[in-house]
Amino acid sequence: MSAPSLFGSRDERIVEPRSLLSSIGEVAYSWDIGADTLSWGPNAAEVLGPVPAAVLQRGLSFAGLVEPGSGRSRYDAIFSSGGHDFGDGAVYRTRYAADLAGRKMWIEDAGRWFAGIDGRPSRARGVLRLERAVRPEELSATDTDLCDRHVLVERVDEALAEHLPAERTVVVLIAAIGELARLNGDFGHEGTEEIIEEVRQRLHSVMRRRDQLMHYSGNRFAILLSGCPANQIEAAAQRFIKAVARSAVETSRGIALARLRVGAAIAPDLSRHGSVLVKAAENALAGAEAAGLDNAVIARRSAAGEAGGAAPRLDLEAVAALNERKVRLAFQPVVAAKGRALAFNEALLRVERPQGGFLAAAELVPLLERRGLVNLFDHRVLELAMAHLTERQDAVLSINVSPRTLAEADWIDGFEASARANPIAVKRLIVEVTETATIEDPGRMAKLLTRIKQRGARVAIDDFGAGHTSLRHLRAFPIDILKLDGAFTQNLRRSTDDRFFVRTLLELAHHLGVETVAEWVDDELQASMLCDWGVTYLQGHLIGKAELAEPDLQENNPPLRAAG
Q1: What's the rounded Cα separation, in Å, for the pair 229 and 235?
Q2: How far is CA 295 from the centre of its chain?
Q3: Cα–Cα distances in Å, from 382 out to 151, 393, 477?
Q4: What is the largest CA-CA distance in the chain?
Q5: Where are the alpha helices (DSSP H) in 126-232?
Q6: Strands 458-464 and 429-434
Q7: Could you give the dihedral angle defined by the CA atoms of residues 511, 517, 520 and 526, in that order, rounded to the nearest 10 degrees?
Q8: Which candidate, 63, 113, 122, 69, places its Cα nearest to that of 93?
Q9: Quick one: how far is CA 158 from the chain centroid?
Q10: pLDDT, tens only, 487-513
Q11: How far apart are CA 505 and CA 485, in angstroms?
């Protein structure tokens, strides 16, 4: 790879973020899990090489590059993480070997997933880092019975092609060993591997000859049953559940009790597509795990995520939320790195559902952008934030504005009108735009940000570090704060490359004369390193989670009406 390009004569240690990322073999990505669309940082080709664009655009297609048995794919790491998103994401991390256009490399893949409306992973943001080339002997002894999710979907499709024309049903069972994290803590890695192997043998012992068994994703197994009618699915699942639970498992580290949870989906009743059936069975398994059930949960048509019921329902709920004043703000604290005094709060969107609870922002915001509704919510967030700043004269807030909203003239016009009406309050407002929002038309973005600054608000670039914005453009933007992408700051404890990269970003910010926020700060060691390197502010679980603001702030805000 080419050496990083230097800039400026004041400090030759500072380099362009994109060049530095490529030199250390890292690339950032975002993944819309529901739509299965991947978006990569601009240096993807430099790091990954000539991987076909069609493979890079889909999460499951990229998972197909993972060498069988080398490790969990990103999908499997997320869905078997066992974590929960309480508003700020849940950590995932995996390591696998991948075939990058004929070049087999070990890859570390880490980030955070964010929950959708059903609490399941909906969106992920992370960093992929190439470690080194794979040696031939490292993959020669892999478990031939272990497959990744991409291969599993292919095998389901093959079974469907074989049995459905003959009018034979195909049932996909996804089974998982319960409480694997506890077993791993009690028996260690070797003992857990022995438990998994014993479970595999017990499952195989009660299979019919025409059925198929596949081990994937650590503690998960897929079982394909052909010619099994719907009214026999529970009986078939019980055969496997009882085979695993019939006696304790003896390992070299002691005796363990294993329990199986099962989700099921049937073709053609539910779908004729392997990917839909596997996803539906996994969702059903999640229900069985959450409830601790000893019987199978069978996916129904709505669980498969097929055709359009969810999105129109969310559209109606979203518009109703606007009209019924159900848009709320949640505040997450941002503190000074030295002394930990509160500097400001980030105001995050929360939308109340008619039946109680809140629509999950991770799934809601992308949907609103696709449906052309996000500008209405950005207007409401601005109104609520300004009302709070006017009422609380010691408060300082930051708000996020969608790139789609910034592309429309009415938001900036509304902002300027609000600033004229509240000239003191607007000085305590910070407007955050994502780094990706700055790249489509940098000249226009510079003018927009300048208008925001001229009214007294501060400007922050969010999710900074993926290399989208060049130094030339950064110099042209009237920036006050750079918020470092948490995908890089979360891995400081483990990665010397990320430590070097984050320190370089902080030097870049110092070179530009702007303040910095480190996101996703979870522990004291991470906070201490960032503080030593000169970061201005800290934000994350260690500092505090987002808490709902008082609802009475909405009383003076009339409802918005959706056009048409």
Answers
A1: 11
A2: 30
A3: 47, 16, 22
A4: 76
A5: 136-139, 149-163, 180-205
A6: parallel
A7: 60
A8: 113
A9: 30
A10: 999 989 888 999 999 999 999 999 999
A11: 10
Confidence of residue 485 (pLDDT cuts 50, 70, 90): very high
Token pair for residue 401? Answer: 């504005």
pTM: 0.71
Q: Quick one: 22 exposed, middle or buried, by C-beta within 10 A (0-12, 13-18, 19+)?
A: buried
Q: Report the helix count and the strand count for the chain, using DSSP H and E.
A: 20, 22
The answer to whether the CB of 56 falls within 8 A of the CB of 38 is yes
Question: Hunting for tokens 């009018």 — which residue is that?
Answer: 167
Statement: residue 316 has pLDDT above 80 = no
Distance CA 93, CA 522 (A): 15
User: CB neighbours (10 Å) of residue 496?
Assistant: 9
Contacts of 507 (CB under 8 A, 6+ apart): 11, 13, 14
The alpha helices in 292-432, defined as continuous H runs, are: 310-323, 361-371, 374-391, 403-406, 409-421
pLDDT > 70? residue 395: yes
Q: Round to whole Å and give the CA distance between 12 and 399.
A: 35
Check residue 308 and give its pLDDT.
Answer: 40
- Mean predicted lDDT score pLDDT of the chain: 84
Judge contact between 483 and 460, C-beta under 8 A: yes
* Identity of residue 463: D
Single-letter residue type at 86: F
Residues 153, 157, 159, 160: is their CA dihedral positive or negative?
Answer: positive
Average pLDDT over residues 425-452: 90
| 3-state SS, residue 468 | coil
Give dist(CA 466, CA 51) in Å, integer.
Answer: 19
* DSSP, residue by residue, 102-120: TEEEEEEEEEEEEE-TTSS
Say if CB 337 and CB 355 are below 8 A apart: no
Helix (H, G, I), strand (E, B) or coil at 516: strand
Supply 351's token pair. Answer: 């939308």
Distance CA 346, CA 349 (A): 10
Give the per-residue pLDDT at 31. Answer: 94
Torsion angle of alpha carbons 486, 491, 492, 493, nearest 10°?
A: 140
Contact 172, 269 (CB under 8 A): no
Is residue 229 reached through a cis peptide bond, with omega within 30 degrees of 0 on the bond before it?
no
Helix (H, G, I), strand (E, B) or coil at 558: coil
Neighbours of 46 (CB within 10 A): 18
Q: Among 363, 347, 349, 353, which Cα is nearest to 318's? A: 353
- Copy the structure tokens of residue 229: 């009618």
